[in-house]
Amino acid sequence: MGRVMVGVAAGLAAVACVVAAVAVGRRMRSRGKWKRVVRVLREVEEGCETSVGRLRQVVDAMAVEMHAGLASEGGSKLKMLITFVHNLPNGTEKGTYYALDLGGTNFRVLRVHLHGQQSSVLEHEVERQPIPQHLMTSTSEDLFDFIASSLKEFIEKEGNASELSLDRRRELGFTFSFPVKQMSVSSGILLKWTKGFSIVDMVGMDVPACMQEALTRKGLDVRVAALANDTVGTLALGHYNDSDTVASVIIGTGTNACYLERVDAIIKCQGLLTASGYMVVNMEWGNFWSSHLPRTSYDIDLDSESPNPNDQGFEKMISGMYLGDIVRRVILRMLLESDMFGPISSKLSIPFMLRTPMMAAMHEDDSPDLREVARILKDILEIPDVPLKLRKVVVKVCDVVTRRAARLAAAGIVGILKKIGRDGSGGITGGRRSEMKMKRTVVAIEGGLYSSYTLFREYLHEALNDILGEDIAKHVTLKVTEDGSGVGAALLAASHSSYDVDTV
């Protein structure tokens, strides 16, 4: 009997050893998988590193590319387009002006009333309409007749309420957010369609002229006084509210910037004269590129798989269109390398499945158990039962990608300030920056990535302080300027009115 008990005990001990060995093996494999996840995270952090030294290299590169783009056509990745907007609104404008804003599958009609007294709250009305699908691929005449008809209905609703005198024709600003080569403040040739439009007969045509012909066909005595994109409209509205505004930046789904440049610095347009001595330059900065930009394998893959490889390199690192997809690619790599969840969800392999608003919601989830992170991973990417420690890693990835984007955007802004001598470097005396020579500088900013994403905005401001130093940064103000593409276009019509002409 004793031998039997000894045998049983020995057998149980052997089983216990096997169980323990299996458990240890599982823990070891689990630790190995976790180490691979952490290794991917460390690689992303290193690849997205934006030290102050690197950011200052980006600043210098931006200023150099701006100079090159102003010197000659094709001399830089930055197009540095002449907008022919040289007379920015300053708050003294009076009258009623209109705006048409065609930026995609919707368009808006606006009416703005100006009373000659600068105000941060402008009196205006707006109507929004979708563009019927068939008109996006029809003819230019069909499209512009539809827009002109909508404007006519909008005007007819005024009744006797219009402030216009009978001997004065209406004037409007036209925001047309498609690639255009501008010929004057009120003319520009369409280079190509984007955003689902494909009206073949329109390419190569003068956009405001086509609009003007449609207005005439509809019996409207309205003049297209200014053609602009949303960046220029934002600068116009920013300058109307604050005369120290010298640049504007859009940071939303896409990104772009424009600024006020001295005419004599625009070498590729020698002989260009304006009464103000300045000209608004549309940088098209989304296409900026420099070897100093912290590019990762995820950026390279995203770019190569995009419809426009080797284009818009800066935009693909900082704008809302792309940030969520960079995060998706990192999560996919982590799960592939670690094999922590078995078969990978097909949703995780779909480009742009994780939109930036969802990424921001995960990044800003402050619940103790990160339940919003878990919900988005489950509902959007079909990754269920994600442990808390992995949810924390996902938040960290969001943080790394967002922080890089915001800090690079800040470097771009400082690059503009450096080009126009507003970064403090022009006031160096005896090795120290002189506050006496620093002017108050305002940059108008529009776009949901900046205005709605708190952490992005905080990281951008932090980077401005890091690059400029607090003594200089305190002279620079970033102001959210909403609806430059609408109200700003009407203000441009006012500042370039035929009744108050300032000629180029």
Question: How would you explain this protein's 3D organization?
Answer:
- This protein is α/β, with parallel strands linked by helices and 504 residues long.
- The chain has 2 domains: 50-83 and 241-483, Hexokinase, domain 1, CATH 3.40.367; 88-159 and 167-228, ATPase, nucleotide binding domain (Nucleotidyltransferase, domain 5).
- The protein has 15 helices and 15 strands.
- It has a 6-stranded mixed beta sheet, sandwiched between helices. A 5-stranded mixed beta sheet has the order 4-3-2-5-8. Strands 6-7 form a two-stranded antiparallel ribbon.
- A hairpin with a 2-residue loop joins strand 6 and strand 7 (187-190).
- The longest helix is centred in the first third of the chain and has 46 residues, at 2-47.
- The radius of gyration is 28 Å and the shape is globular.
- The model is unreliable at 13-28 and 427-436 (pLDDT under 50).
- It is a single-pass membrane protein.
- It is an enzyme of class 2 (transferase).
- Pfam families: Hexokinase_1, Hexokinase_2.
- GO terms for molecular function: ATP binding; D-glucose binding; glucokinase activity.
- It is found in: Mitochondrion outer membrane.
